[in-house]
Amino acid sequence: DALPISSSEFFTYQREVYGASPALIWARWAALDHQRGDQGMAAAGLALADLATADEEGPVHARRAPGALAQLGVQVVSYVAQQRRVSGAAAAVGEWVAMVAAAAFVGSLQKAQVPDHLPKLPTLYALAITLFSLFVALPAVRTFGFDLTSFWREAAVGISPAPFYWSRVLADLPGICLRALCFGLAFWSCGAFNVDLSEMILLLLTQGLCASGLAYLVAITSPPSLAVTLCGVLICVACGFFAGIVPTLAEAGPVTRVALNLSFGRWSLQCLASADFSRVPNALYAHVGSQLVEAAGWPTADELAARGHGECDVPLTVLACTGLALRLLGALALVACNRDQQHKAPLCTAGGCGGDDDDDFTALSRVRSVASSSVAAPGPRARRESEGKAVRARTQPRGRSPRSSRRRSRGSGGGGSSAADAIQVVPSTASAASAAPRLL
């Protein structure tokens, strides 16, 4: 399964991953060439680039990939730092302030409808659940998709997809819990609910697990330019259109009922609304609440008492299982996508690395040409002087003084240059190769 690797790809990998100097990189390449020969170099493929150390007097040792737990610990720390770099201090503070303000606004609207306009409350509850899901899912899909590009590069050298994925999942859990706490406090304190604060926060936490799991799956399976938009649309569909308001479970047909049972927004709304309506303290409005529960198709208080369940026992269990299932689907999707990226040259783009038939001289010439093109083009006078120096270095007889040679070159006017002259005037191997990784 090994693929050939050119000297330019080997140079780029060694410089980007290990930070080796140009002289040390070419020394390693020469040592490998001496040990393996042409056939061994072609057969080893990317394994050549997977080096730990190279000593002029000792052999070249292959790098061993670290264990899964070591990769998991390192990548959790890396992803936490990545989140801070992507979001930024001002943007992160503004996002949290907007989330708390939205929760307080919807909570104040809910308080204004109690107790005279109870039929309007399911719509406000669906709005609150949708807003919270968006505040959880959009940051998750943004940061996860931003770091996914570096994973494809690291996967080419043996990084396992499982530690990468679960490191993101574990690093996001504290943020999801804190969002559920802040949103729940603002929503519950500004509204008039018959639900305990602990039940509210637990409901939002399980809802956040579902929203973030969907965000991971969308970030892996969709293009980065469409991931945020697609995730937002799916959240609105799951928490708005299939929340069980229009149509309700009692009105839905067989196909629609299946979609409602798969929608995590419907289970969140059922938990919040049925618990709130079933616990109305005012006897005059308690009958209205029970009628709303029965019209929506949710289990009534008598049915729940016969089963020995509470209003939120089944919905919370379904939400927790849905969040776990979405995370497992994301892990499987990442492994499936990683199969297409395996055995590819690291840090190579389409058309940016050499083919299988390139030899060492062709690869080195490519590095020189790329590096020389990245340098600003010299003016006509500097070009004539460099061409004159190349001509003098090639044609100057032994024993002739540099002054006479300089007069002759000025008199000749600096004629045209050949292909050999062009090779001599490009930057040195070390300086040319050092510019190549930035372009590759």
Would you give an account of this structure?
This protein has 440 residues and is an all-alpha fold. Helix content is 73%, strand content 0%. The protein contains 18 helices and no strands. It has helices at 7-18, 22-44, 68-87, 89-113, 121-155, 161-190, 197-221, 224-241, 254-262, 264-278, 283-296, 301-307, 313-339, 360-374, 380-395, 402-412, 419-425, 429-439. It is elongated, with a radius of gyration of 33 Å. Mean pLDDT is 73; it is low at 38-60, 342-377 and 401-440.
Strand proportion:
under 5%
Number of beta strands: 0
Cα radius of gyration in angstroms: 33 Å
Mean pLDDT across residues = 73
Unreliable segments of 5+ consecutive residues: 38-60, 342-377, 401-440
Shape: elongated
How many helices in DSSP terms? 18
> Helix proportion of residues, in percent?
over 70%
Can you summarize the main beta sheet? none
